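Re: the 179-residue chain
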Amino acid sequence: MSRIGRKPIEVPGGVTVNVDSSNVVTVKGPKGTLSESIRPEIAVNIDGATVEVTRVSETRQARAFHGLSRTLIANMVDGVTKGFEKTLEMNGTGYRATLDGKILVLSLGFSHPVRVEPYEGNSFEVAERRVVIKGPNKQKVGDQAANIRKLRPPEPYLGKGIKYSDEVIRRKAGKAGKK
């Protein structure tokens, strides 16, 4: 049996978890409301302040989705209580980020500034050469961070570009000089 799938999910105060007849789990909390459709091979049981995820059958597909379903629900509970964030760093001459209302404006060495609108529920914070993406949905926060990084990925020679704050860029040696 899945070790992750067997762990019960503790629901903190101020958070409500509901499961409807079509196996859609809805989690409401102080940072918003999230919902996720769970596969029919998986059953979600709510007992007071804990949520347990079990398999309906022992098929290969049910075993594969057991831990995933439990993790998705646990991430929804964490998202509506604490929220998630990703931090991006910009390295390069003239690379800047500013906010125009809620829209992120990036100067990345192109002929024009790049404007990025936040996904639903996400927000941006800008400080110097850092951009912090915050939101309750872990998937949307990570996807938005990946799309911003894709605009100017870091290159291995000078390290210029946009990278995650915890990412390490493996640097390469430049051209060898004449001998």
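Residues 27 and 77 are 7 Å apart (CA to CA).
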